[in-house]
Amino acid sequence: MTATAPEQQTAEVVYDVKDVTLRFGGVTSLNKVSLQMHRGEILAVIGPNGAGKTSLFNSLTGVYTPQEGSITLAARKGDTLTSVLGQKTHVINRMGVARTFQNIRLFPALTALENVKVGVETRQKSGPIASMLGMPWQRREERESTEKAYELLRFVGLTRRANDLAGSLAYGEQRRLEIARALGTEPGVILLDEPAAGTNPNEKQELAALIRKVNIEDNISVLLIEHDMKLVMSVAHRLVVLNFGEKIAEGTPEQIQKDPVVVAAYLGTSEDEAQAMTEGLEVQTIDVREGLLDEPGAAGTEGGQS
Ligand SMILES: Nc1ncnc2c1ncn2[C@@H]1O[C@H](COP(=O)(O)OP(=O)(O)OP(=O)(O)O)[C@@H](O)[C@H]1O
Ligand SMILES: [Mg+2]
Q1: Distance from the first to the final alpha carbon of the chain
Q2: How many domains does the chain have?
Q3: What is the number of the ligand closest to the CA of 52?
Q4: How far is the CA of 226 from the centre of ligand 1 (A)?
Protein backbone atom coordinates (compact mmCIF):
# COMPACT_ATOMS: atom_id res chain seq x y z
CA MET A 1 0.00 0.00 0.00
CA THR A 2 1.34 3.42 -0.89
CA ALA A 3 1.39 6.34 1.48
CA THR A 4 -1.11 9.02 0.52
CA ALA A 5 -1.58 12.60 1.52
CA PRO A 6 -4.56 12.98 3.84
CA GLU A 7 -6.73 14.71 1.28
CA GLN A 8 -6.17 12.10 -1.38
CA GLN A 9 -8.81 9.53 -2.06
CA THR A 10 -7.52 6.06 -2.64
CA ALA A 11 -9.03 3.02 -4.27
CA GLU A 12 -8.64 1.06 -1.04
CA VAL A 13 -11.98 -0.37 0.04
CA VAL A 14 -13.23 0.55 3.50
CA TYR A 15 -16.70 -1.03 3.35
CA ASP A 16 -17.65 -3.65 0.81
CA VAL A 17 -21.39 -4.26 0.68
CA LYS A 18 -22.54 -7.07 -1.60
CA ASP A 19 -26.12 -7.99 -2.45
CA VAL A 20 -27.47 -7.05 0.96
CA THR A 21 -31.14 -7.78 1.59
CA LEU A 22 -32.80 -6.79 4.85
CA ARG A 23 -36.42 -7.65 5.57
CA PHE A 24 -38.78 -6.87 8.42
CA GLY A 25 -41.69 -9.26 8.08
CA GLY A 26 -43.27 -8.30 4.78
CA VAL A 27 -41.22 -5.11 4.37
CA THR A 28 -38.01 -5.31 2.35
CA SER A 29 -36.04 -2.29 3.47
CA LEU A 30 -32.90 -3.20 1.49
CA ASN A 31 -33.07 -5.25 -1.68
CA LYS A 32 -29.81 -6.64 -3.08
CA VAL A 33 -27.88 -3.47 -2.34
CA SER A 34 -24.21 -3.44 -3.30
CA LEU A 35 -21.76 -0.60 -2.84
CA GLN A 36 -18.16 0.07 -2.07
CA MET A 37 -16.83 2.87 0.05
CA HIS A 38 -13.24 3.92 -0.55
CA ARG A 39 -10.71 5.16 1.96
CA GLY A 40 -10.63 8.92 2.24
CA GLU A 41 -13.87 9.62 0.41
CA ILE A 42 -17.05 11.37 1.40
CA LEU A 43 -19.77 9.07 0.10
CA ALA A 44 -23.34 10.27 0.40
CA VAL A 45 -26.41 8.07 0.55
CA ILE A 46 -29.50 9.89 -0.62
CA GLY A 47 -33.05 8.89 -1.40
CA PRO A 48 -36.63 9.75 -0.50
CA ASN A 49 -38.12 9.02 2.93
CA GLY A 50 -38.28 5.29 3.66
CA ALA A 51 -35.76 4.50 0.91
CA GLY A 52 -33.65 2.37 3.27
CA LYS A 53 -30.84 4.80 4.15
CA THR A 54 -30.95 4.35 7.92
CA SER A 55 -31.50 0.61 7.44
CA LEU A 56 -28.24 0.55 5.51
CA PHE A 57 -26.42 2.40 8.32
CA ASN A 58 -27.91 0.03 10.87
CA SER A 59 -26.73 -2.95 8.82
CA LEU A 60 -23.23 -1.48 8.55
CA THR A 61 -22.99 -0.91 12.29
CA GLY A 62 -24.43 -4.18 13.60
CA VAL A 63 -27.81 -2.86 14.72
CA TYR A 64 -29.43 -5.15 12.13
CA THR A 65 -28.11 -8.30 10.53
CA PRO A 66 -29.29 -8.58 6.92
CA GLN A 67 -30.76 -11.93 5.90
CA GLU A 68 -28.74 -12.04 2.69
CA GLY A 69 -25.50 -10.68 1.33
CA SER A 70 -22.16 -9.76 2.84
CA ILE A 71 -20.62 -6.69 4.47
CA THR A 72 -16.89 -6.48 5.06
CA LEU A 73 -14.96 -3.66 6.69
CA ALA A 74 -11.38 -2.39 6.85
CA ALA A 75 -11.97 0.83 8.76
CA ARG A 76 -8.43 1.87 9.57
CA LYS A 77 -5.51 2.06 7.22
CA GLY A 78 -3.71 -1.28 7.04
CA ASP A 79 -6.73 -3.30 8.26
CA THR A 80 -7.83 -6.28 6.21
CA LEU A 81 -11.44 -6.63 5.13
CA THR A 82 -13.36 -8.50 7.83
CA SER A 83 -17.04 -9.46 7.94
CA VAL A 84 -19.21 -7.40 10.27
CA LEU A 85 -22.30 -9.59 9.90
CA GLY A 86 -23.45 -10.79 13.29
CA GLN A 87 -20.99 -8.53 15.13
CA LYS A 88 -22.25 -6.38 17.99
CA THR A 89 -22.29 -2.60 17.56
CA HIS A 90 -19.59 -2.02 20.21
CA VAL A 91 -17.32 -4.50 18.44
CA ILE A 92 -17.81 -2.73 15.11
CA ASN A 93 -17.14 0.55 16.91
CA ARG A 94 -13.84 -0.86 18.18
CA MET A 95 -13.09 -1.95 14.63
CA GLY A 96 -13.03 1.78 13.80
CA VAL A 97 -16.58 2.82 12.90
CA ALA A 98 -18.34 5.69 14.66
CA ARG A 99 -21.74 7.13 13.90
CA THR A 100 -24.23 9.81 14.73
CA PHE A 101 -27.98 9.32 14.74
CA GLN A 102 -30.90 10.74 12.79
CA ASN A 103 -32.42 11.72 16.15
CA ILE A 104 -29.74 13.28 18.32
CA ARG A 105 -28.62 10.91 21.07
CA LEU A 106 -26.59 12.95 23.52
CA PHE A 107 -26.72 12.80 27.31
CA PRO A 108 -28.60 16.08 27.82
CA ALA A 109 -27.89 16.27 31.56
CA LEU A 110 -24.13 15.90 31.09
CA THR A 111 -21.93 18.78 29.97
CA ALA A 112 -20.63 19.02 26.42
CA LEU A 113 -17.18 18.01 27.71
CA GLU A 114 -18.54 14.98 29.56
CA ASN A 115 -20.42 13.85 26.46
CA VAL A 116 -17.20 13.86 24.45
CA LYS A 117 -15.33 12.08 27.26
CA VAL A 118 -17.83 9.23 26.98
CA GLY A 119 -16.63 8.73 23.41
CA VAL A 120 -12.94 9.07 24.30
CA GLU A 121 -13.19 6.64 27.22
CA THR A 122 -14.48 3.79 25.06
CA ARG A 123 -10.88 3.63 23.79
CA GLN A 124 -9.33 3.42 27.25
CA LYS A 125 -8.59 0.40 29.37
CA SER A 126 -9.95 1.45 32.76
CA GLY A 127 -13.33 0.10 33.75
CA PRO A 128 -15.65 1.53 36.42
CA ILE A 129 -13.91 -0.35 39.27
CA ALA A 130 -10.52 1.17 38.49
CA SER A 131 -12.26 4.54 38.23
CA MET A 132 -13.80 4.14 41.69
CA LEU A 133 -10.53 3.05 43.24
CA GLY A 134 -8.73 5.95 41.60
CA MET A 135 -5.81 3.83 40.41
CA PRO A 136 -2.79 5.86 39.25
CA TRP A 137 -3.12 4.87 35.61
CA GLN A 138 -6.81 5.62 35.86
CA ARG A 139 -6.06 9.17 37.00
CA ARG A 140 -3.67 9.58 34.10
CA GLU A 141 -6.30 8.29 31.69
CA GLU A 142 -8.84 10.67 33.18
CA ARG A 143 -6.48 13.59 32.57
CA GLU A 144 -5.77 12.41 29.05
CA SER A 145 -9.44 11.96 28.23
CA THR A 146 -10.21 15.47 29.48
CA GLU A 147 -7.44 16.91 27.31
CA LYS A 148 -8.54 14.90 24.30
CA ALA A 149 -12.17 15.94 24.81
CA TYR A 150 -11.16 19.62 24.96
CA GLU A 151 -9.18 19.15 21.76
CA LEU A 152 -12.22 17.64 20.04
CA LEU A 153 -14.49 20.42 21.27
CA ARG A 154 -12.05 22.90 19.78
CA PHE A 155 -12.01 20.91 16.53
CA VAL A 156 -15.80 21.22 16.19
CA GLY A 157 -15.84 24.85 17.39
CA LEU A 158 -17.48 24.30 20.79
CA THR A 159 -14.70 25.19 23.25
CA ARG A 160 -16.69 27.90 24.95
CA ARG A 161 -19.61 25.51 25.49
CA ALA A 162 -17.48 22.86 27.25
CA ASN A 163 -19.13 23.21 30.65
CA ASP A 164 -22.69 23.81 29.46
CA LEU A 165 -25.21 21.00 29.60
CA ALA A 166 -25.59 19.31 26.23
CA GLY A 167 -29.35 19.77 26.45
CA SER A 168 -28.92 23.54 26.62
CA LEU A 169 -26.95 23.82 23.37
CA ALA A 170 -28.45 25.13 20.15
CA TYR A 171 -29.53 22.46 17.71
CA GLY A 172 -26.62 22.89 15.33
CA GLU A 173 -24.22 22.82 18.30
CA GLN A 174 -25.71 19.53 19.47
CA ARG A 175 -25.18 18.10 16.00
CA ARG A 176 -21.51 19.15 16.11
CA LEU A 177 -21.16 17.80 19.65
CA GLU A 178 -22.40 14.41 18.47
CA ILE A 179 -19.69 14.44 15.82
CA ALA A 180 -17.06 15.33 18.45
CA ARG A 181 -18.19 12.45 20.62
CA ALA A 182 -18.04 10.07 17.65
CA LEU A 183 -14.52 11.30 16.83
CA GLY A 184 -13.50 10.52 20.42
CA THR A 185 -13.51 6.82 19.55
CA GLU A 186 -10.77 7.51 16.95
CA PRO A 187 -12.65 6.02 14.01
CA GLY A 188 -11.37 5.35 10.52
CA VAL A 189 -14.92 5.72 9.21
CA ILE A 190 -17.69 7.97 10.43
CA LEU A 191 -21.35 7.50 9.50
CA LEU A 192 -23.47 10.62 9.77
CA ASP A 193 -27.24 10.12 9.62
CA GLU A 194 -28.77 13.46 8.59
CA PRO A 195 -26.31 15.66 10.51
CA ALA A 196 -28.00 18.82 9.26
CA ALA A 197 -31.59 17.79 9.96
CA GLY A 198 -33.45 20.55 11.76
CA THR A 199 -30.61 23.07 11.51
CA ASN A 200 -30.77 26.57 10.06
CA PRO A 201 -28.87 27.68 6.93
CA ASN A 202 -25.88 29.03 8.90
CA GLU A 203 -25.64 25.85 10.96
CA LYS A 204 -25.79 23.83 7.73
CA GLN A 205 -22.81 25.76 6.39
CA GLU A 206 -20.92 25.09 9.60
CA LEU A 207 -21.71 21.41 9.36
CA ALA A 208 -20.61 21.24 5.74
CA ALA A 209 -17.28 22.85 6.71
CA LEU A 210 -16.91 20.46 9.63
CA ILE A 211 -17.60 17.39 7.47
CA ARG A 212 -14.85 18.46 5.04
CA LYS A 213 -12.50 19.16 7.92
CA VAL A 214 -13.08 15.71 9.47
CA ASN A 215 -12.44 14.14 6.09
CA ILE A 216 -9.34 16.07 5.17
CA GLU A 217 -7.60 16.96 8.43
CA ASP A 218 -8.39 13.70 10.22
CA ASN A 219 -8.29 11.58 7.06
CA ILE A 220 -11.55 9.88 8.03
CA SER A 221 -13.78 8.27 5.42
CA VAL A 222 -17.27 9.75 5.71
CA LEU A 223 -20.58 8.08 4.88
CA LEU A 224 -23.25 10.73 4.87
CA ILE A 225 -27.03 10.48 4.78
CA GLU A 226 -28.53 13.87 4.12
CA HIS A 227 -31.73 15.24 2.62
CA ASP A 228 -30.35 18.72 2.06
CA MET A 229 -29.26 18.54 -1.57
CA LYS A 230 -27.27 21.74 -1.44
CA LEU A 231 -25.17 20.37 1.41
CA VAL A 232 -24.82 16.92 -0.14
CA MET A 233 -23.83 18.15 -3.55
CA SER A 234 -21.26 20.52 -2.07
CA VAL A 235 -19.45 18.02 0.16
CA ALA A 236 -19.84 14.54 -1.38
CA HIS A 237 -17.22 13.10 -3.72
CA ARG A 238 -19.68 10.44 -4.79
CA LEU A 239 -23.30 9.52 -4.16
CA VAL A 240 -25.37 6.38 -3.97
CA VAL A 241 -29.11 6.77 -4.47
CA LEU A 242 -31.61 4.43 -2.83
CA ASN A 243 -35.31 4.20 -3.60
CA PHE A 244 -37.70 1.63 -2.12
CA GLY A 245 -34.74 -0.30 -0.74
CA GLU A 246 -32.93 -0.55 -4.06
CA LYS A 247 -29.86 1.21 -5.36
CA ILE A 248 -31.07 3.14 -8.40
CA ALA A 249 -27.98 5.21 -9.18
CA GLU A 250 -24.40 5.90 -8.21
CA GLY A 251 -21.98 8.58 -9.36
CA THR A 252 -20.46 12.00 -8.88
CA PRO A 253 -22.67 14.93 -7.87
CA GLU A 254 -22.69 16.09 -11.51
CA GLN A 255 -23.79 12.67 -12.77
CA ILE A 256 -26.47 12.26 -10.12
CA GLN A 257 -27.96 15.71 -10.68
CA LYS A 258 -28.39 14.91 -14.35
CA ASP A 259 -29.67 11.36 -13.88
CA PRO A 260 -33.31 11.20 -15.02
CA VAL A 261 -33.98 8.10 -12.91
CA VAL A 262 -32.92 9.98 -9.79
CA VAL A 263 -34.89 13.09 -10.61
CA ALA A 264 -37.97 10.94 -11.31
CA ALA A 265 -37.58 9.16 -7.97
CA TYR A 266 -37.65 12.50 -6.21
CA LEU A 267 -40.44 13.94 -8.30
CA GLY A 268 -42.49 10.85 -7.52
CA THR A 269 -42.49 11.69 -3.83
CA SER A 270 -43.56 14.73 -1.86
CA GLU A 271 -43.30 18.26 -3.19
CA ASP A 272 -40.76 19.12 -0.52
CA GLU A 273 -38.46 16.34 -1.68
CA ALA A 274 -38.86 17.30 -5.31
CA GLN A 275 -38.16 20.91 -4.45
CA ALA A 276 -35.09 19.88 -2.46
CA MET A 277 -33.80 17.96 -5.46
CA THR A 278 -34.51 20.85 -7.80
CA GLU A 279 -32.71 23.24 -5.48
CA GLY A 280 -29.80 20.83 -5.57
CA LEU A 281 -29.84 20.96 -9.35
CA GLU A 282 -29.25 24.68 -9.31
CA VAL A 283 -26.24 24.43 -7.09
CA GLN A 284 -22.82 24.40 -8.61
CA THR A 285 -20.64 21.80 -6.99
CA ILE A 286 -17.65 23.28 -5.28
CA ASP A 287 -14.21 21.88 -4.76
CA VAL A 288 -14.22 19.98 -1.46
CA ARG A 289 -10.93 21.55 -0.48
CA GLU A 290 -12.38 25.05 -0.62
CA GLY A 291 -13.11 26.62 2.71
CA LEU A 292 -11.38 23.80 4.50
CA LEU A 293 -9.42 25.91 6.88
CA ASP A 294 -12.35 28.11 7.83
CA GLU A 295 -13.23 27.91 11.48
CA PRO A 296 -16.75 26.59 11.91
CA GLY A 297 -18.88 29.69 12.02
CA ALA A 298 -16.76 31.62 9.58
CA ALA A 299 -18.13 29.65 6.63
CA GLY A 300 -21.72 30.89 6.78
CA THR A 301 -21.79 33.84 4.48
CA GLU A 302 -24.39 32.96 1.89
CA GLY A 303 -26.71 30.72 3.86
CA GLY A 304 -29.43 33.03 4.98
CA GLN A 305 -31.10 34.21 1.82
CA SER A 306 -34.75 34.85 2.43
N1 LIG B 1 -37.03 -1.88 12.81
C2 LIG B 1 -37.86 -1.88 11.76
N3 LIG B 1 -38.97 -2.61 11.75
C4 LIG B 1 -39.81 -2.62 10.69
N5 LIG B 1 -39.60 -1.90 9.57
C6 LIG B 1 -38.51 -1.13 9.53
C7 LIG B 1 -37.56 -1.07 10.60
N8 LIG B 1 -36.56 -0.22 10.25
C9 LIG B 1 -36.88 0.21 9.02
N10 LIG B 1 -38.03 -0.31 8.58
C11 LIG B 1 -38.68 -0.06 7.29
O12 LIG B 1 -37.70 -0.06 6.30
C13 LIG B 1 -37.97 0.94 5.33
C14 LIG B 1 -36.78 1.85 5.19
O15 LIG B 1 -36.67 2.64 6.36
P16 LIG B 1 -35.41 3.54 6.68
O17 LIG B 1 -35.61 4.10 8.05
O18 LIG B 1 -34.19 2.78 6.42
O19 LIG B 1 -35.58 4.69 5.59
P20 LIG B 1 -34.77 6.05 5.39
O21 LIG B 1 -34.30 6.06 3.99
O22 LIG B 1 -33.76 6.22 6.46
O23 LIG B 1 -35.93 7.13 5.53
P24 LIG B 1 -35.91 8.62 6.17
O25 LIG B 1 -35.36 9.51 5.11
O26 LIG B 1 -37.35 8.89 6.43
O27 LIG B 1 -35.08 8.58 7.40
C28 LIG B 1 -39.23 1.65 5.75
O29 LIG B 1 -40.34 1.07 5.08
C30 LIG B 1 -39.29 1.34 7.23
O31 LIG B 1 -40.60 1.36 7.70
MG1 LIG C 1 -33.47 7.54 8.01
Answers
A1: 49
A2: 2
A3: 1
A4: 15
Neighbouring CB atoms inside 10 A of 301's CB total 10
Closest ligand by atom to 50 CA: 1
Residues 220, 265: Cα–Cα separation, whole Å: 31
Per residue in 205-256, pLDDT tens?
Answer: 999 999 999 999 989 999 999 999 999 999 999 999 999 999 999 999 999 9
119 CA from centroid of ligand 1 (Å): 27
Taken in order 219, 224, 228, 232, the sign of the CA dihedral is positive
Picking from 69-73, 122-126, 235-239, 266-270, which range would have the lowest pLDDT averaged per residue? 266-270
* Amino acid at site 195: P
Predicted TM-score of the model (pTM): 0.84
Ligand 1 site residues (CB inside 6 A) read: 24, 27, 29, 47, 49-55, 102
207 and 84: one domain? Answer: yes
Residues 208 and 83 in one domain: yes
Atom 1 in ligand 1: residue holding the nearest Cα:
24
Question: Which of 70-84, 136-150, 267-281 has the weakest average pLDDT?
Answer: 267-281
Residue 243 lies in a domain: yes
Residue having the nearest C-alpha atom to atom 26 of ligand 1: 49
